[in-house]
Design brief:
Jelly Rolls, 9-stranded antiparallel β-sheet, two-stranded antiparallel ribbon, binds fe (ii) ion
């Protein structure tokens, strides 16, 4: 699977306004909407089933740069596999439009996930794959789909993990746009 960005009006899910598969173009369009999208490379090959410390060390320079830029306080690593017994519940959790009072920062070490952001009348569907960093700015309405067969390893950065809660907007807009898989 390859990364891609689709842009729609929030009033017209059936009309694809922009479609980008070039990561530099994706970064430009997202930057114009105030969204950070970057490519990171490991400074050393990862082992087959790397532990959290190994994953973080492999991307330490980029992590440190982001912490210096944005003041994030904590870093962790999460993963999901297609045979996880609770995958449907985890998928359901963030499928509807919500926002957080803090940035939602994810770097995809492996696998993929679909972040959809709702900004100034536009809907940005960002399919993130291996090597992609996305930061959903604080208070930006968005939703996230890991798909029916979720698979990813992701680094997360937080201002304050205790304060990271989803505030649902009550809109059903997410149901009119694309799901993953
Ligand atoms: Fe979120």
């Amino acid at each position: 699977m390859h990364s891609e960005l689709k842009v729609f009006s929030d009033q017209a899910p059936e009309v694809l306004e922009q479609h980008h598969t070039d990561k530099a173009a994706m970064a430009r369009v997202l930057a114009s909407a105030g969204v950070r999208y970057e490519q990171w490379q490991a400074n050393q090959p990862l082992s087959e089933s790397p532990q959290q410390d190994e994953v973080i060390q492999a991307y330490q320079a980029d992590i440190d740069r982001l912490i210096a830029d944005e003041g994030y306080q904590t870093v962790d690593v999460v993963s999901m596999v297609p045979d996880h017994p609770d995958k449907a519940a985890f998928r359901q959790k963030f499928l509807e439009e919500h926002q957080h009072s803090e940035d939602e920062v994810r770097f995809f070490v492996e696998g993929q996930g679909l972040f959809t952001l709702h900004i100034n009348g536009k809907v940005y569907e960002v399919l993130c794959t291996k090597g992609d960093l996305i930061s959903v700015p604080a208070n930006t309405p968005h939703w996230f789909d890991m798909g029916p067969a979720p698979r990813f390893v992701a680094i997360r950065l937080f201002n304050n993990p205790d304060g990271w809660v989803a505030n649902f907007t009550g809109s059903d807009i997410a149901q009119r746009f694309n799901r993953l898989g």
